[in-house]
C-alpha cells in the first residue's frame, strides 16, 4: 500500500469554499467597484433599492458552458486533434425558484410586461407582451454568494429573464414559487470572443487577492 491515502485537500481548501445560495440582483453597477468595502456598500444599496430578486427556494444554479464540434474533414473521422475544436453554441444562464410574487419581482420574471394602476388604486394590472423590445433586456442579472475569502460574483450581460416553468401554488405553509431563468446575450459582433458573462472575486484581504492572482498562468492574464 502507498505511504498515505491521497485526498484532494489543499492548504487553500477551507479558504475557498462557497457557502449558501447567495442572492440574485438586477442591474448591479459593479463595473467600477474594486474594494470589498465598496462592494458591500453596493450590495446594501441595491437590496434597499429593490434590485435584489428576493428569497429563493432550492438553491441557485449558474451555468456557463460552451459546446464544441470538429469540422468535417475527409479521412479525419472523429480523431481528436489539437486545434480541431470550434465553438458551436453557448449556454449562459442563472436559474432559481423565486418566492416573492409582488409586481416589481414579477417584472423581472416577465420583462415584457406592461403595468397599469386600476382606478380604485387598490389593484395593479399586468399584461405580458409577446414581443421583446431592446429595453426589455437588463444590463445584467448577477448572482453574488459568500465564500471564505469574501464573495464570488457571476454577472450575465444583456440578460433576458423569463419564467422557467409553471408557477407552483403549494398546499400548506411552504408557500408557492416561480421558476425563473435569465440568459446572458451578446450585444454585437465585437462581443463574440467571450461568453456574455463576467466573474469577479472580492477578497476580504487585499494580500490574499494578490497572492491568488500570482497563481494564475501569466499567459492567461488580460493586458489592461
Task: Give an account of the 3D structure.
With 224 residues, the protein is mostly beta strands. The chain has one domain (22-65, 93-214). 15% of the residues lie in helices and 37% in strands. It contains 4 helices and 9 strands. The protein has helices at residues 13-16, 36-48, 103-109, 206-214; strands at residues 18-26, 56-69, 86-98, 113-117, 124-128, 138-147, 150-163, 178-183, 197-203. Strands 1, 2, 3, 6, 7, 8 and 9 form a 7-stranded antiparallel β-sheet that branches. It has a two-stranded antiparallel ribbon with strand order 4-5. A hairpin with a 6-residue loop joins β4 (113-117) and β5 (124-128). The longest helix is centred in the first third of the chain and has 13 residues, at 36-48. It is globular. The model has no long low-confidence stretch (mean pLDDT 90).
